[in-house]
Amino acid sequence: MSSAVRPRAAGAPPDTTAPGGGSDGDGGRPGAPRPAPASRRRYRLRRDRSLLLMTLPAVGLLALFVYVPLIWTTVAFKDYDPYLSGLWDSPWTGWENFSLLLSDSRFWDAGVNTLAITFLQLTLFFPVPIALALLLNSLLSERVRAVVQSVLYLPHFFSWVLVITVFQQMLGGAGLISQLLRARGYEGFDLMTDPGVFKFLVTAQLVWKDAGWGVIVFLAALSAVNQDLYEAAAADGAGRWRRMWHVTLPALRPVIALLLVLRVGDALTVGFEQILLQRDAVGPGASEVFDTYVWWVGIANGDYGVAAAGGLIKGVFSVVLVLLANKVAHLLGEQGVYRR
Question: Strand, coil or helix: what is 117?
Answer without folding.
Answer: helix
